[in-house]
Structure formats: structure tokens, C-alpha cells
Write a structure and sequence with these properties.
single chain, about 120 residues, mainly beta, Immunoglobulin-like, six-stranded mixed beta sheet, three-stranded antiparallel beta sheet, globular
Length: about 120
């Protein structure tokens, strides 16, 4: 497991945990208390099918998906479990993280690629 910029390289069936901090346009930590946070993975930008999606509790998910770690200081944790990727084909995927503030403003805070690498031990 590694990250280059916002790119993620993950062996199929491995655990991935990432702590993410949200900053405003002035590079100041942004409180995200009450925010809906959704991480979505697709095979390509044009593919309508969602490969994998994670949500925080406010968005209808659970702390096992996106953990509301320290929202007052703009922090949350994304959790990808082995079961989430074990059946995925190795290759390149695209993901983003969308945040909807308690005031209803919608921001895509990260978008990049996730690479699933083939595993030997299963």
C-alpha cells in the first residue's frame, strides 16, 4: 500500500486506511462537522457502475467505511477492507471524495486513480 500524491496503489485483498484533512482555499484547516462524506470508485470516468462506495455515518454509511475522526479539525479516515477489493480485477480505477457541508455546499475534495495490483497469496 502506498500513495503518490492522491494516487493509491493497493494489492487486491489488502487493507487500506487513510487519514484525510480538509483545508479551505487559504490552506487553513476547515471544520467539517455535520458534513456528508462519500468516496466513490469506478473503473473509468465514463462508467456508470459504481465499483465501490464508502460513506460516513451522516451520509448513511458507517465508521467502518469513513470514520468521523476529528471533524472539528477537518479530519476523517477512509477504510478499505480486504473484502472490498478481493474480487476486483487488477488494473486502474478512478475515485473521488465528495463532501457536502452542513450548509448544503458540495465540494469534490480529491480525485485521482487507484491501482489494484495482483496478489499471490489469497
Amino acid at each position: 500500500m502506498s500513495t503518490t500524491g492522491n494516487r493509491v496503489y493497493l494489492f487486491r485483498g489488502d487493507t487500506y486506511d487513510a487519514e484525510i484533512t480538509v483545508y479551505d482555499e487559504d490552506d487553513v484547516v476547515e471544520s467539517i462537522v455535520g458534513a456528508l462524506i462519500i468516496w466513490t470508485l469506478r473503473k473509468s470516468i465514463d462508467n456508470e457502475n459504481i465499483t465501490l462506495q464508502k460513506k460516513n455515518i451522516a451520509a448513511g454509511g458507517s465508521a467502518d467505511e469513513i470514520e468521523d475522526y476529528d471533524l472539528g479539525n477537518g479530519k476523517f479516515r477512509l477504510h478499505i477492507l480486504p473484502a472490498d477489493t478481493i474480487s476486483l480485477d487488477p488494473g486502474e480505477y478512478i475515485y473521488d471524495i465528495q463532501l457536502t457541508t452542513s450548509g448544503g455546499k458540495v465540494y469534490t475534495i480529491i480525485t485521482d486513480r487507484l491501482f489494484i495490483k495482483p496478489d499471490v497469496t489469497r
